[in-house]
Amino acid sequence: MAEAAVAGNGAEAKMRVWRGDASGGEFRDYTVPLEEGMVVLDVIHSIQAMHAGDLAVRWNCKAGKCGSCSAEVNGKPRLMCMTRMNTFEPGETITVAPIQTFPLVRDLVTDVSYNYEKAKTIPPFKPKPKEADGTRRMYQEDIDRVQEFHKCIECYLCQDVCHVIRDHNENKPSFAGPRFFVRVASLEMHPLDTDDRLEFLRNEAGLGFCNITKCCTEVCPEHIKITDNSIIPMKERVVTRFYDPIARLLGALGGKKS
Amino acid sequence: MAGDSYETHEYDVVVVGAGGAGLRAGIEAHDKGCKTAIICKSLLGKAHTVMAEGGIAAAMGNVWPEDNWKVHFRDTMRGGKLLNNWRMAQIHAQQAPDRVLELEEWGALFDRTDEGLILQRDFGGHRYARLAHVGDRTGLEMIRTLQQRAVSLGIDVFMECNVQHLLMNDGRVSGAIGYWRESGELIVFNCKAVVLATGGSGKCWQVTSNSWEYSGDGMGMAMEVGADLIDMEKVQFHPTGMVWPPSVRGILVTEGVRGDGGTLLNSEGERFMFNYIPEFFKAETADNETEADAWYQDKKNNRRTPDLLPRDEVARAINSEVKAGRGTEHGGVYLDIANRRDADYIMRRLPSMYHQFKELADVDITKEAMEVGPTCHYIMGGVRVDADTSATAVPGLYAAGEVAGGLHGANRLGGNSLSDLLVFGRIAGESAADYALGAAAATAPAPAEVDRLTTLMLEPFTDRGGENPYAIHGDLQRTMHNLVGIIRTESEMLKAMEEIAVYKERAARVKVEGGRRFNPGWHLALDLKNLLAVAEAATLSALECKESRGGHTRDDYPDPDPRFGSVNVVTRKHNGTVSVSLEPLPEMPEELRKIVEEQV
């Protein structure tokens, strides 16, 4: 970290914030007082209160738990509530733009309905019967991996940086994106689940589009190893099922979930 | 303004709010065969439940087979200083385990015991380790599970849609009106029943763990149509919020830190909680460090550490330590787990606390103590409901979760909120469905009424004097923090009432800039109505309640007074005037009284 901007004592934050909607817009400069410990979202709130009451931004928890305040800060996809102002050079002008992969609604708010539509397509959890004693026994070591996937806060930063849809809007109808590969993996690896979503992954979800550049993993604020722990194992299962001749033969004889 | 166009939707049951209670209510109403809509102010899955950390209290007995609903009931009643609605506390304790197991049926993955069952952790005021949890992100697991269930059932969800007013017809609820945040366009729901699951009102206070959504919407709307509010003066200040740096002040530090072995220390390094054990909890609380530390492993032969007294006791103790000059540099106390548990354990049990302190405060909780202090967290008071049906006094109107009052009495135990959401969310959904299935078709509101409400909603765009909504909100938060905070006194609260009256006048002169499309200034201008209504109700109730009990502490009446020990403080609005009265609590049956009074 560079020499941190000294907060208090008249320190100021210089911000360049995107203002506008689908019809057009521009970056506008704002200067607000800087307090110790401030994060980018605090500064955005100060701008709202002091200069631009209608500045559109999504937020809820302000503690990195809800995944609402995703934006691109100096070009990097981040949660604004977890981006400390003292990580920037003193006096540096900080640019805040909306995430780029989804259509702009207004200012820092984008239309993320793509994600909610994809969520509807995922075949839901389908548990096996209970144990004979009426319980559901699962052991911690068997659920550690799935619990990692359940940490997802649905900030959609992984979706934002995924080249398959960031650079090719036309792929959206046939590609679910890393967040939903994680979701499907969490179901496929759930010790109680009995459904099979490999065909779904291969076709409807477009898993094959992913060429494992790991951009999603890099931006995940929950540090979920999206590529290594969910996408690659799912790709392996798809390959084994649909492209491995021996596995295909066994599958035809009644084998199913690995 | 009047005559503005709006879209209309027809449903049997409309659920306002999509946290734990709203989602569970919506699922139940849907399963009962009702055409159901869930409406939420934010995106789905972002509601306040997502921030819950420590766990869901349910007497499953997986860790301590001695645990059962009666012990949970007793803990809940005693934690609430017996001001709870006993029937709600009984239903809650009896049904919570089934609700947790149901989440597992829907895909939730709780941390496990060695036998492969759901692990349960210690929390304040609970005699046994009782909280089903997922590390320190239990709320996320819960909301995601419910959200995915609701989506898989195909329930209609209206996201970023803000309900502003309830509609009435012939003395019963007939729908709701609000706006889409994205477009600013108006929307009307015609329905047979409404479930309020709008959460709390912590945004009335300055230092709070609550998000912008907690503006008291359900309480304000319910009072407008004639429902009663109870115990609005009972506000929970969670003992451990972050205090430094200033920009994160109030963010929650889970009670799980103490449940997992952390202790509170003052600036002299003293475990001060031993000096604050109230008579009421003496028999069940350790009075020395050796016993307190041994309790974590052996609950049969040791009494509970005072670090895990109910939240009201701990918050007051911290307040007193800081006032006595034994606070930390930034006006809190220390919460230390670094010297008590090894780093691996801390990282496994409290990963998001580690992350939160590391990222926001440059503190490594595996190496250093945290600085913590009280933060406004929860309101025990809320809309008065029938214990068995969650019905309010208004036909067709139901309420569940934090918006409802009664279950938690004068003070809520940690972990009892998530279970509250599930138990009473389900009951409210079921009752609303039963009512809706037997009710006549929904009727469209009278055009004049829609015109009146539309005018109210669009007024902030007209030139009325230029008051800034952010400034009014900030001033209200300061007033409530300084004058109706953790310790209260009559003269200060009277001053608060004067200031609230001024804010009401100012709110009538708000002018927002910009247009209707995703305009947070306008949204806040409209939220001021409910924020001010709750602030007024809380202050009036606090003035009326001349005693100290649970989440209501009076400097001028420092002790509990039996006069207030068997009544609810009821706030209601009639012909535009808010009145406060004392009304008797439902009487507890003898066999339950015995459970509560039994010594352990």
Brief sketch in words of this structure:
The complex is a heterodimer of chains A (258) and B (600). Chain A has helices spanning 40-50, 113-121, 140-150, 157-161, 163-166, 178-188, 198-202, 215-219, 226-243, 245-252; strands at residues 12-21, 24-33, 70-73, 76-79, 93-97, 104-106, 109-110.
Supply the key terms:
heterodimer, A: 258 residues, alpha+beta, Ubiquitin-like (UB roll), Fumarate Reductase Iron-sulfur Protein, Chain B, domain 2, 5-stranded mixed β-sheet, two-stranded antiparallel sheet, 10 helices, elongated, B: 600 residues, FAD/NAD(P)-binding domain, Flavocytochrome C3, Chain A, domain 1, 2 domains, 4-stranded antiparallel β-sheet
Report on the structure:
The complex is a heterodimer of chains A (about 260) and B (about 600). By secondary structure, chain A is an alpha+beta fold. In chain A, about 35% of the residues lie in helices and about 15% in strands. Chain A has helices spanning about 40-50, 115-120, 140-150, 155-160, 165, 180-190, 200, 215-220, 225-245, 245-250, and strands at about 10-20, 25-35, 70-75, 75-80, 95, 105, 110. In chain A, the strands form two sheets. A five-stranded mixed β-sheet of chain A has the order 2-1-5-3-4. The longest helix of chain A has 18 residues, at about 225-245. Chain B has about 600 residues and is of the alpha+beta class. Chain B has two domains: about 1-55 and about 135-235 and about 380-575, 3-Layer(bba) Sandwich (FAD/NAD(P)-binding domain), CATH 3.50.50; about 240-375, Flavocytochrome C3, Chain A, domain 1 (Alpha-Beta Complex), CATH 3.90.700. Chain B has helices spanning about 20-30, 70-80, 85-105, 140-150, 215-225, 255-260, 290-295, 310-325, 345-350, 350-360, 415-435, 445-460, 470-485, 490-505, 520-545, 590-595, and strands at about 5-15, 35-40, 55, 120, 130, 155-160, 160-170, 170-180, 185-195, 230, 235-240, 265, 335, 370-380, 380-385, 395-400, 565-575, 575-585. In chain B, a hairpin with a 5-residue loop joins β8 (about 170-180) and β9. At the A-B interface, α1, α2 and α3 of A face α3, α4, α10, α13 and α15 of B.
